[in-house]
Specification:
Helix content: 25-40%
CATH architecture: 3-Layer(aba) Sandwich
Number of helices: 11
CATH superfamily: Ribokinase
Number of domains: 1
CATH topology: UDP-N-acetylmuramoyl-L-alanine:D-glutamate ligase
Radius of gyration: 19 Å
Shape: globular
Strand content: 25-35%
CATH class: Alpha Beta
Distance between the termini: 15 Å
Structural class: alpha/beta
Strand order of the largest sheet: 5-4-1-8-9-10-11-12-13
Length: 319
C-alpha cells in the first residue's frame, strides 16, 4: 500500500461531521504545596487555553489532515458557543449547520499541572434536542448530504445524537448509501444498525456487545457480536496501548500501537475516526485505513491536550 499516495488524496475529500460540539478549556499551572484548608494540591495558574472537543475536534482533525469539513450540532447562546464557532471558522470548518438552543454550550475544563491532569469539571445540559430544532437539523443534513464524500457521527452523549435523529437519517435512502462512520457511546449502540463503521473503545465495545472484554477470546466474541447486532461493514475496537482490532465480515486484524510515547489520550478517538474515514474513502482497504488511523493516533497521544495530526507527521511516523 502506498500510504503517501492515500494521504495526499485527502485534500480532494469533504466530510460532514454530526455530533456534540464541545469546547475544551485548559488551565495550566504548577503545584508546589498542599492546601492548609483541605488535603488537595494548590495549583498556581500560569496560563489558560481553549481547544476544540467532540464533533468540533473531529472536524479540526479532518482539516488538519488536509480535507474539507463541515459540522452539524447545537450550541448555547453564550460566549463559549461564540468562541467555539469562531475557532472552527478560523480553521476553515463550515459552520452553517450549527443550531442555537437555550442551553449552555458544553465546556470541559481541565486543570493541568506538571503535564498531569489534576481535576476536570464540566458545564453542560445533556437532554436530547427535540421539536423544531430536531426537525431543522434533520432537514438541513438531508438537504446538503450530496455535497459530502462521507458522514461521521461523533456521539459524546451530550444531547445532539438521539435515536430519533439517527433513525430519520438512516431511513433516507441516499443518506444511508453514504459511508457513515460512528464513534458511539454506551447506551446508544442500538441507534446505529446499518452504518458502515463503528469505532468503540474497549469499555464501549463491552457494553454494546453485552460481553466483558477480558482477554483475546472475549475480545473476539464482542467484536463478532457487534458485527452481528449492527450489521455494519466493520467494527474497529481501539485498545489503548494494545493497539486496535478490526473486525470485518470474514476476518479480524490486530494492529499493534504505533505510539512511541503517551502523554495524553484526550481526543485520540476523534483522530482515529477522522483518519480512518478519509483513508478508506481515498482508496485504502479497511485494514490499511486502520493502520493509517493507528499512526495518526500515535502522533496525537504524544502531546498534552487535545491535538491533531498532519499527513506529514503520519508519514514520518511510518519511518
Amino acid at each position: 500500500m502506498d500510504y503517501r499516495k492515500i494521504l495526499n488524496s485527502f485534500g480532494k475529500k469533504n466530510i460532514l461531521v454530526i455530533g456534540d460540539l464541545i469546547l475544551d478549556h485548559y488551565i495550566w499551572g504548577k503545584v508546589s504545596r498542599i492546601s492548609p484548608e483541605a488535603p488537595v494540591p494548590v495549583v498556581e495558574v500560569t496560563r489558560e487555553s481553549f481547544m476544540l472537543g467532540g464533533a468540533a475536534n473531529v472536524a479540526h482533525n479532518i482539516r488538519a489532515l488536509g480535507a474539507k469539513a463541515a459540522v452539524v450540532g447545537i450550541n448555547g447562546k453564550d460566549m463559549a458557543g461564540e468562541a467555539l464557532v469562531e475557532m472552527l471558522r478560523t480553521r476553515g470548518v463550515n459552520c452553517d449547520g450549527v443550531f442555537l438552543e437555550n442551553r449552555p454550550t458544553t465546556v470541559k475544563t481541565r486543570v493541568i499541572a506538571h503535564s498531569q491532569q489534576v481535576v476536570r469539571f464540566d458545564r453542560e445540559d445533556s437532554k436530547y434536542v427535540g421539536g423544531r430544532i430536531l426537525t431543522g437539523i434533520v432537514d438541513y443534513i438531508i438537504s446538503v448530504h450530496d455535497r459530502y464524500d462521507a458522514l461521521i457521527i461523533s456521539d459524546y452523549k451530550k444531547g445532539m445524537i438521539s435515536a430519533e435523529i439517527i433513525g430519520r437519517l438512516l431511513r433516507h435512502p441516499k443518506v444511508r448509501k453514504m459511508f457513515i462512520a460512528v464513534d458511539p457511546k454506551v447506551g446508544h449502540f442500538g441507534f446505529y444498525r446499518g452504518v458502515s463503521l463503528v469505532t468503540p473503545n474497549v469499555l464501549e465495545a463491552s457494553s454494546g456487545a453485552h460481553i466483558e472484554i477480558r482477554d483475546e477470546k472475549t475480545l473476539l466474541q464482542a467484536g463478532r457480536a457487534l458485527m452481528k447486532r449492527l450489521g455494519c461493514k466493520a467494527v474497529l475496537i481501539t485498545r489503548g496501548e494494545k493497539g486496535m482490532s478490526l473486525f470485518e465480515r470474514r476476518r479480524v486484524a490486530h494492529i499493534p500501537t504505533a505510539a512511541r510515547k503517551v502523554y495524553d489520550v484526550t481526543g485520540a478517538g476523534d483522530t482515529v475516526i477522522s483518519a480512518f474515514t478519509l483513508a478508506h474513502i481515498s482508496g485504502a482497504g479497511m485494514e490499511d485505513a486502520a493502520v493509517i488511523a493507528n499512526h495518526a493516533a500515535g502522533v496525537v497521544v504524544g502531546e498534552v491536550g487535545t491535538a491533531v495530526a498532519s499527513p506529514e507527521q503520519i508519514i514520518e511516523s511510518f519511518s
